[in-house]
Design a protein that fits this description.
Organism: Streptomyces rubradiris (Streptomyces achromogenes subsp. rubradiris)
Strand content: under 5%
Shape: elongated
Keywords: Membrane, Transmembrane, Transmembrane helix
InterPro entries: DUF6113 (IPR046095)
Protein name: Integral membrane protein
Pfam families: DUF6113 (PF19608)
Largest sheet: none
Number of strands: 0
Length: 138
């Protein structure tokens, strides 16, 4: 039984992002990559403080992006940038150089950052219907 008005927010078709939102998401992607590179350098420097600082920076970028854009995409964009940067830093080069050592801190940084990305994308600001904040059904 439809009254002819617009349906629920989640039932509406997806539209391409506006140019401003696309630029914000690209900027968040670059920010996530920079946080990943900085975290890779810091996490091994002052164990365990550097690891906690690197993970806090990653969580701040993920959750801050979510709140800045008021969408889950704002958390996903820096998370993807972080993941791309960290994965590229873990690959060995032809010269045999690599940035990550095979230590506990490196694995905690990799796995902890991925867990934080999922948590921030889940908990972050998602689509909420408009209206008051009153509880319904009381």
């Amino acid at each position: 039984m439809s009254d002819g008005g617009p349906g629920p927010l989640l039932a509406q078709p997806l539209r391409p992002p506006s140019p401003g939102r696309a630029a914000a998401l690209v900027g968040l992607f670059v920010l996530g990559a920079l946080v990943g590179v900085a975290g890779a350098l810091v996490q091994a420097a002052w164990f365990p403080g550097g690891l906690l600082l690197a993970l806090a920076g990653a969580a701040g970028a993920f959750l801050g992006g979510s709140y800045a854009t008021r969408s889950r995409g704002g958390a996903v964009a820096p998370a993807v940038g972080w993941l791309v940067a960290v994965v590229l830093l873990t690959t060995t080069r032809a010269e045999g150089d690599f940035l990550f050592g095979a230590g506990v801190g490196s694995y905690l940084f990799l796995l902890g950052g991925m867990v934080l990305a999922v948590i921030c994308a889940t908990v972050g600001a998602g689509r909420q219907p408009g209206g008051g904040s009153a509880r319904l059904g009381k």
